[in-house]
Design brief:
With 127 residues, the chain is α/β, with parallel strands linked by helices. It has one domain. It has five helices and four strands; from the N terminus they run H-E-H-H-E-H-E-H-E.
Amino acid sequence: MRYDYFRTLCELFTENFTKQISSWCDENEILLTGHVLAENTVLQQTQSVGSCMANYQFMQWPGIDLLTDQANDLVMAKQCSSVASQLGKERVLSELYGCTGWDWPLEGHKFIADWQFAAGIIFFARI
């Protein structure tokens, strides 16, 4: 019963949110990018949207949100880059550095960028 509940949650969210926005973007020649809420762990994804990977397929540039100086969210990064690779997406976006502060050293910035490049993230946005 729990499996059916979370699968239904994922299907409803994907069909009624991400897929509809993607269709509108396609019709208006706009590339859809962004990230899904609570993407850091599989448990958070399951409780929030069912599965982030199901939503990435409808984004022309699927993305993640890694706002801290932590490099422990490999599953999140690899899920996104994996879907992009499997479906031939042009790039994978990451919003990063947003919560690191202006006093964070350049070495930290380089480490996180290198870590994300290694995980398949190739386009960055500092918000």
